[in-house]
Amino acid sequence: MLTFATAIFFLIITPGIGVLTTAGVGAGYGFGSGIRFLIGLFIGTNAVAIFVVTGVAAIVLANPILGPVLLYASVAYLLYLAFRIGWAGSKVAFVERQTPPGGVGGFLLQLINPKAYAVNTTLFSGFHFMPGNLSMELALKFLIINAIWIPVHLIWLWAGVSLKRLDLSERSQSLINKGMALSMLIVVGLAAMKG
Question: What whole-number distance in Å separates Cα of residue 46 and Cα of residue 111?
Fold first, then answer.
């Protein structure tokens, strides 16, 4: 279970569209709008996990044409996002919008987020710690994932709200971007080793 929890922590904390958008909502619109967005993101995250556990995602990914196309598109998307973050220049590369996306926006974002499917597939198809009781293992996995997901995303929201208040140097902002890009590349590497 400790290996499972460690994998969750690193897969969830690494920059992806969900956490970056969460930080962006915090930076752009404050804590209240960020919480509303996070509620939708949370519901969407669990919906994706249910699609993975029930096999809906597996049916789509098992298609000999559609499965590889979606896998390569997800990896390409993660590489693209890492590039955009790492070479964003001196501005912190958080996603900005004209209006806060709200709960519905958070929910819909997770439904189209390739990292959410990749992470949930990795977590639910591997790291077996109760092979004799699959139902209990699944329940514990949902509990552990959410127990880590919630504080990690609240930290990203707080970071976005806090960074807006800081007057960081261009060098510091660039270093933040490079660190985010490196985290994304680690996720891509883990996904490639899994596949």
Answer: 10
The separation between CA 71 and the C-alpha centre of its own chain, rounded to angstroms, equals: 16
DSSP secondary structure string, 8-38?
Answer: HHHHHHS--HHHHHHHHHHHHH-HHHHHHHH
- 9 burial class (0-12, 13-18, 19+ CB within 10 angstroms)? middle
Which candidate, 112, 146, 118, 143, places its Cα nearest to that of 129? 143
CB 4 within 8 A of CB 141: yes
Give me the mean pLDDT over the 112-116 stretch. 77
Task: Please name the residue that has the structure tokens 């890009």.
Answer: 181
Give the pTM: 0.71
The CA radius of gyration of the chain, in Å to the nearest whole number, is: 17
What contacts 24+ positions apart, CB below 8 Å, involve 78-84? 78/16, 78/114, 78/115, 78/184, 78/187, 78/188, 78/191, 79/184, 79/185, 79/188, 81/15, 81/16, 81/17, 81/20, 81/184, 82/180, 82/181, 82/182, 82/184, 82/185, 82/188, 83/181
Supply the DSSP symbol for 79: H
By three-state DSSP, how is residue 5 classified? helix
Query: How do residues 173-184 score in pLDDT, each as one tens digit?
Result: 777 767 766 766
- 79-98 confidence digits (pLDDT tens): 765 676 666 555 555 554 45
C-alpha to C-alpha distances, 142 to 12, 116, 185, 186, nearest whole angstrom: 14, 14, 26, 24
